[in-house]
Amino acid sequence: RTLKDSVCRYKTMQGFQVRRKAGWDTHGLPVEIEVEKQLKMTGKQDIEKYGIKEFNQKCRESVFSYESLWREMTHRMGYLVDLDNPYITLDN
Q: What is the pLDDT of residues 20-38, one digit of tens each?
């Protein structure tokens, strides 16, 4: 993240217009593993019993539960990034 911010700053100083769009990765194994632990699940069958649609929604909620922490850290680190108009992988 720091390297990406540095490259964007460098290109901006060279006169390029650089879009600094933040993003939320709402899919993937780390998210699923965290939700499985929260729900005390042990495998695919538990997810199917819970409901795939409901499980996916819980994954989305899990990701966004960290939004305020990410905003605070981004501000404290001094990153120049647009957090108000992020890309979100669940938006297609």
A: 888 887 778 888 999 999 9
